[in-house]
């Protein structure tokens, strides 16, 4: 059945003849309250909330929902005006979205079964607005008079919605409805909706000056906070190195017979670190002795024959062999490679190199004392001017994160180095190591005291310096 009310075509599912009781229900609809709400509603969400409660009472509905149109920032969504829409479940929400889509394409309201069992019905009608149309959805009880009442009431609601829109909407402004609260009010996209009293007089919510006072106060507080002096510290990476290092080299060319220490071993002065193979030295000594005897006999024979020139050459040969023998004797005495100082073996893993031939002067071991250590501080080039000499340094190592060490920055190398793809100047801090817990190669972080500075300078001085460099100032 279709009918017309206030210019809207009404389509009713399962129509039945209207009885005199139905007409009585229609006559008792709260039309005066509907007109009053349209006159005093402060905003579109306020109007929706009031009309939703009024519709729920007029139709004895189980629930009132609104279908908000899709915008550029969010998809279309269903919002419960008298109860949370999320409690219906995904399947029923899908059915309601289908009713809302059908109402948008219909000239009047649509009504039908909600869950297919005829135990509940749903009615929907489009609420015209200048900005974009909304759809009002009503969950109805399955009563005989419900279709007639809906056909009379919903077109009145749609007409009042159009009237409110003509009075209050502005071009490009739409209400941002609160998705969580029932009965909460929201503001339009371009400003606050003016509050309307019962007599219809609009009152401005806020003026430009009231909003500006808050902005000016916040700016003043921010500026004051930026000017507060605070301790400034330059944080850098660091690495532990021994104060002195001694390198132990191969005393002569020959094969390595055995390595007696490994990296990390603690040695004393004079301890044997490795042993060279002496077989070749002994063979050369035996050969030199035989050559020396032969040269001596040649010299004596030339002297007997009065060949003084040949005798002199033989004598020189004997002297050369004598010097070679002394050199071989020295190598024999130094087959054992000993540590020149007490300390720790920093490098020199030769356990797997036994039997390998070594060249003279080849570095075998690096020995470093452990009584004192140097902390090499990697100061960034951009912070060099902010680090004074003899400044206090606070050190935390990765190996001991709960232990804080303190020292003074003794010196800064005058030349920059490239470490970890960053140009840095290396500073040195000496630390005692009586307990020998500090090891070469340990890394950590160092905080260098750099005096007092304001919070604004701390936050923006790096950016400002980069801008000045880029600008060429």
Which structural class should the secondary elements be placed in?
Answer: alpha+beta
CATH homology-level superfamily of the largest domain: GAF domain
Sheet having the most strands: 8 strands, antiparallel
CATH fold group of the largest domain: Beta-Lactamase
Q: Helix segment count?
A: 9
What features would you describe in this structure?
The chain is α+β, with helices and mostly antiparallel strands and 473 residues long. It folds into 4 domains: 2-203, 2-Layer Sandwich (Beta-Lactamase); 234-242 and 371-471, Efflux pump adaptor protein, beta barrel domain (Elongation Factor Tu (Ef-tu), domain 3); 245-275 and 335-368, OB fold (Dihydrolipoamide Acetyltransferase, E2P), CATH 2.40.50.100; 278-333. It has 9 helices and 25 strands. The protein has helices at 20-27, 31-40, 44-59, 90-105, 146-168, 208-226, 279-304, 308-333, 455-471, and strands at residues 2-5, 8-11, 63-68, 77-80, 110-113, 120-127, 134-141, 195-196, 202-203, 229-242, 246-249, 254-259, 266-267, 272-276, 336-338, 343-347, 357-358, 363-368, 372-380, 392-397, 400-408, 411-412, 417-419, 422-432, 443-454. The strands form 6 sheets. Strands 10, 19, 20, 21, 22, 23, 24 and 25 form an 8-stranded antiparallel sheet that branches. A 5-stranded antiparallel sheet has the order 4-3-7-6-5, sandwiched between helices. A 4-stranded antiparallel sheet has the order 11-18-16-13, with no helix packed on it. Helix 2 runs parallel beside helix 5 (146-168). The longest helix is centred in the middle third of the chain and has 26 residues, at 279-304. It is elongated. The two termini are 83 Å apart. Residues 1-27 and 170-206 have low confidence and may be disordered.
């Amino acid at each position: 059945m279709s009918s017309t009310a206030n210019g809207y075509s009404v389509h009713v599912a399962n129509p039945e003849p209207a009885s005199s009781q139905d007409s009585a229900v229609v006559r008792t609809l709260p039309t005066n309250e509907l007109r009053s709400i349209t006159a005093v509603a402060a905003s579109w969400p306020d109007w929706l909330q009031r009309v939703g409660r009024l519709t729920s009472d007029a139709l004895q509905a189980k629930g009132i929902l609104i279908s908000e149109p899709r915008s550029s920032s969010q998809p279309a969504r269903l919002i419960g005006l008298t109860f949370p829409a999320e409690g219906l479940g995904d399947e029923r929400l899908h059915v309601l979205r289908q009713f809302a889509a059908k109402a948008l394409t219909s000239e009047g309201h649509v009504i039908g079964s909600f869950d297919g069992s005829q135990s509940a019905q749903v009615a929907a009608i489009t609420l015209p607005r200048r900005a974009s149309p909304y759809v009002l959805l009503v969950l109805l009880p399955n009563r005989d008079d419900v279709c007639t009442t809906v056909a009379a009431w919903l077109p009145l609601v749609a007409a009042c919605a159009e009237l409110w829109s003509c009075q209050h909407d502005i071009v490009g402004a739409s209400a941002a409805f609160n998705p969580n609260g029932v009965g909460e009010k929201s503001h339009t996209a371009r400003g606050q909706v003016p509050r309307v009293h019962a007599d219809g007089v609009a009152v401005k919510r806020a003026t430009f000056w009231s909003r500006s006072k808050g902005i000016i106060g916040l700016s003043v507080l921010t500026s004051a906070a930026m000017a507060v002096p605070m301790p400034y510290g330059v944080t850098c990476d660091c690495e532990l190195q021994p104060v002195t290092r001694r390198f132990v080299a191969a005393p002569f060319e020959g094969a390595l017979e055995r390595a007696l220490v490994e990296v990390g071993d603690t040695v004393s002065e004079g301890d044997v670190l490795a042993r060279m193979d002496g077989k070749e030295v002994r063979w050369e000594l035996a050969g030199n002795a035989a050559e020396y005897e032969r040269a001596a006999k040649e010299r004596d024979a030339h002297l007997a024959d009065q060949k003084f020139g040949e005798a002199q050459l033989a004598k020189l040969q004997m002297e050369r062999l004598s010097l070679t023998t002394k050199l071989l004797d020295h190598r024999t005495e130094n087959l054992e490679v000993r540590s020149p100082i007490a300390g720790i073996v920093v490098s020199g893993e030769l356990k797997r190199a036994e039997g390998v031939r070594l060249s003279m002067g080849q570095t075998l071991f690096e020995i470093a004392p452990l009584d004192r250590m140097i902390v090499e501080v990697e100061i960034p080039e951009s912070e060099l001017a902010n680090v004074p000499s003899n400044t206090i340094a606070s050190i935390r190592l990765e190996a001991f994160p709960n232990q804080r060490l303190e020292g003074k920055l003794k010196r800064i190398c005058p030349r920059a180095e490239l470490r970890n793809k960053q140009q840095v100047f290396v500073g040195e801090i000496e630390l005692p190591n009586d307990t020998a817990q500090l090891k070469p190669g340990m890394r950590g972080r160092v905080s260098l005291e750099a005096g007092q500075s304001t919070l604004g300078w701390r936050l923006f001085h790096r950016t400002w310096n980069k801008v000045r460099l880029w600008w060429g100032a």
